[in-house]
Structures are given as structure tokens and as C-alpha cells.
Amino acid sequence: MGKKWEEMSSDEKQEEMFAKWLSPKDPEGKDLKFQSPQAEKAYKERITRIKDAVQMKKLPDRVPVFACPSFFPAYYAGITPQEAMYDYEKCCMAFKKFVMDFEPDGNLGAYVPGPGKLFEILDYKLYSWPGHGVAPERSYQCNEGEYMKADEYDALIDDPSNFFSNTYLPRVFGALEGFKMLPTLTGILEMYGVAVNFIPFGLPPVQATYKALFEAGAEALKWIGAIGAWNGEITAAGFPIIAAGFTKAPFDVIGDTLRGTRGVMLDMYRQPDKLLEAMDRLTPLMIKMGVGTAMMVGHPIIFMPLHKGADGFLSDEQFKKFYWPTFRKVMMGLIAEGVVPMPAAEGHWTTRLEVVQDLPKGKTLWMMDQSDMVKAKKTLGKVACLFGNVPSDLLKLGTTQQVKDYVKNLIDTCSKGGGYIASNGAFFDEAKAENVKAMVDFAKQYGVYK
Amino acid sequence: MAGDLVNTLADLKEQEVIKIAKDRLSAGEEPLKILDDARKAMGIVGKRFADGQYFIPDLVYSGEILKAVTEIVKPKLTKVAETKRLGKVVFGTVAGDIHDIGKDIVVFMLDVSGFEVFDLGVDVPAQKFVDKIKESGAPIVGLSGFLTLAFDSMKQTVEAIKDAGLRDKVKVMIGGGQITDEVRKYTGADAFGKDAMAGVSLAKKWIGAG
User: Which domain holds residue B140?
Assistant: First the structure.
């Protein structure tokens, strides 16, 4: 008899999560049937390799290798980002070709493009995507704005869900305009007063919004049907998908898509207490989001893209006061439930390394973009597995020899004692295929622990 | 008293700055003098940023305070400010890329360092750069981009400048998240800047002021 989940330590929970990842299930909940015994063996070896690198208790057989593209698989397979977003079969074909041709130990799945039609149905304003504000052959890009106004902190803090449904979502999705008229659901308490809360659902704008939601829901199902089948197929072929889902640092939740960069920066001066309070309020929600996804998928790793904490975006003092405390709390909340946070330190994080190394050992997995890796290994690298740092410009413009030299230097710098996974550092669109191949193959060959 | 506005703005004390600006205006002071002090303060802000004392939020906030001062003073302005400028720079994020944070910081730093900057915005087609160079006679061009896809847009923009017969009349700098000297070579630009300060030093060097 195993221990109950709530009686386990975080170490035991993490072991349990890795064990689940090691034995994937099919949609019916039965053990997934691998394509061949070799595929099963390769899958288990890959997971074990990643697990050993993350836990830092023993050396893996070799340095694991990830390949983490953005739209590169589309270009590589000869389709446009627009096709990848609108034709799910083509998208799956492209991302499958990418995994099969390059054979990384970990890949990011086929989630990157997302369902273009769904974004269209909802009239999504937060992004411009191929055919909608950017050319068909370009990747989607974020339209920053103050989707939450400076004087709306109290509304967010009082009731985050209500703020999202009635204020934020109608601003970022044109088709959800009707949500502005929704009742506050916590007002539905007893027979007296029930009916008035349902009046909005009889009004044309709300009904139009629900019509859009039904359509969006149908499209989401279509999309996940294709992506879910892809996940099963790729896993059965022996290739693990790195992350189960994602969550975010509370400062980025506010700074990326609610208040925007300019808004959050001004709030640090004009209403620091409100900003801090809102981040505290969001912290348990971000923990639940990450833990919930990991439990549902049966997979320990949760991606956390980091944006506004990079070097230069904040002073050291501001980073320690505004960014780090709730970011750390979210990671610790995930760790307590056996989840492995995977923050992506996009851009440069060299000046943050000493602060962020305040973490328990063997519990996190950091994607490093352009930080100083010598320093990273000596600081954060003592307690956390690092991956990445092969630069985008090198993959696009360099020679295979330059890529090999770079990877060799990285492995020499970072692989000692374990805790390193070879990978590119930023999610890339364009690259020379032979350079991506050189990165993966050379790391596999050179990264063997003797 | 006169120095107060310069220092309080440079120290980012928004409420005090606004009070001083209002007080000076109601005491009958020449509005242009107030704006001149504000500009001096922005110069100090720029210097502190270059020295690593200030960071991006400080720049953003100082810009907001300056905006507030300008709004207070504007209705009383009787003549147009004549500021001496070091030189002209045409700046923009290249075609296909809509990222603006990095571009805005360099434009801000060039502006407070005394350059007249023509900011063309984001997703700027090559031809628009060419037209603006012709129209303004600017000797310096800044191309910004965040995506790997921007490498090609930068290359095409430099080529368009060349095709228009302007290549020997302008110096081109590039910058952005993934920009390195390798990318500079690929695009045919004259230099790349790893941050906003590097952009300012390049511009100063190119006009012979640095």
C-alpha cells in the first residue's frame, strides 16, 4: 500500500509525478501502447535522463537534449504559420516531422500555433496573428495595452474571477462583449432573487456571446482532438513532451497582459501597495493553475515564461521587492505538490542569478536564453537544472561547426556534476535545419558522462 | 528655487514636480524656461540610466512626469521652443515585427541625449524608411527587431536604402533581443547596439559628437 498523497513529502510527490510521466496513459486511462519495444525503451530512457538531470542526485547517462522551437517546424516542413494555425492536420504533420527528424529527448508538443479559427470566432484582440495583422508567413505577436486600467486594482483584488469574466475578457475578446452584462454569480443564493440574476441571459448581447462561446468550444474540441492524437502518437513513438502546461509569475500576469509593461512600471511608483496586494491575490491562483494541469495530465513539469523580471527591466531593488517574492511563492507552491516549475529566463538574467538561487535543490528546471552561463552554473546551477543558451542568431546564420563549438563549450561549462540539458535558448522561428541537427546530434555524442 | 524642478524631476518626485511647475507658472515665469529645466532633468535621467543607476521603469516614469509638466505649461506657451539638436535619426521596428519596448527606449535615450528622432513606429516597410531618410536628410538610421524574422526585414531595408542610392549618405545601426554582430554582417548594417546606451554612443560617434 502506497502512502496517501496528502501524507507524502514533496520529494515523494515529485517521485510519484515522475513515475506517472514514465508510464503514460491513453485517453481511456489504460497504459499507452508504444509503437515498439524500442520506442518504449527510448521513451523511458529519455524520461529517466531528464529526471536525473532535474533531481541532481545522480548523473544521467548523458546530457539530455531539448529542442524548443516556436514556428520553426512549420517553416521546416514547408508550410506557413497561417497554415499551421488554421489546418490542424498540417500543423501536426509539421511538428511530427520536426520531432522525428531531429529526435530530441524533449520537445514542446504541437501547441505553439494554436487554433486560428477559434481566435477569429472570439475576435481576439490581444494578439495579431498570420492573416490578422501580420503576414501569413510570420508568427503571431502580442498587442500590449492597458486591458486593466490603473484604477481597477480593487476590482481585481476583490474578485479576480469576476474581474476576468466581466471586465478583462470582454476587452481582449470582441465576441465576449456580452460578458459585461453578466450577473455576479455569488449573488444567486436562494429562491428569492434567483430570477433577476438570469435576466442578462435573455438579452441579445449576452446570447450573442454565448453563441460565440459554443462555436469556440466546438473549435477547441476539434483542435484538441488533433493535438491529443498527436501527443499520443509522439509519446508512443518514444518522444516525451517536456511540459504539461503553464503558469506565470504574478508580476508578469499583471505586467504582460493586464496592465502592460508601461502600466505595471508606473504602478510600482504610483500605487505599489495595490500592485503588491494584487500579486498576493494572484499567487494561489497561479499555484492552482500549475498544480491542476500537472495532476490532470499526469506529468510533473510546468512551464513558466518569464518576461518583465529580466536584466534592465527592473532595478535589483525592484526585482527583490516586486518580482521575486511572489514568483518564488508560486514555484514553492508547485514544488510542494511534486510539480517541477520550468521557468524560461528569456533575455538576460545574469544580474538576477544570485537572488533566484534561493530555491531547494533538484526541484526546478530553468531555460536560459542569453544569461552568462559560467555565472549561472556557479549560482542557480548549484541548485537547479539549467537548459538552453544556444543562440537564435547562431542557429539561423552560423555554420554547423560554429554550432558544435558553441555546444561543446556549453557542455564543458555546465554539465559537470549533472544538472544541465543542452538546448536552444529562445523559442525560434527561423533556423538552418542542419544547425538544429548539429546542436542535437553533437550534444548527444559529446555529452556522454564517462 | 530655480534648480528645484531639475533635481526633483531627475529624482522622479512626481507630485513635487507638478507643484513646482504650477507654482512657477502662476508666479508668472516664462513657460519655456520651465520646459527647458524639464529637458535638463531628462538629460540627468538619461545619464543615470547610462550609468546603471536607473532602469527602464525609471525612464518610463520620468517620461510620464515630463508629459504632465508639458500639459501644465502648454496652454501658456506663446512661442515655440527652439532646442538645438545634435542631429537627425530615423528610427523604427522593421517590417513584420510589431515589438516596440526596445525601440521606444532607444528613441527616448536618443531624444534626451539631444537627437531629433523621427520614430516611424512598428512594422515599418523598407520604403517608408527610404522616404523618411530622403525627406529628413537624416544621416543615421536605427532598425529595431525582436524576432529572428526581423533579420531578413533588416537586410531588405538596408538593401532598399542602397537601391535608393542613399547607402553612402547614412549610417545604419540595428538592435533587438537576438541581434549580434553575426546578424549585423548578415543585414549589411554598419553597427549593432546591444542596448540603448550603445545606440546613443554610436549616433554620437557617427555625427562626430562623441
Answer: 87-206
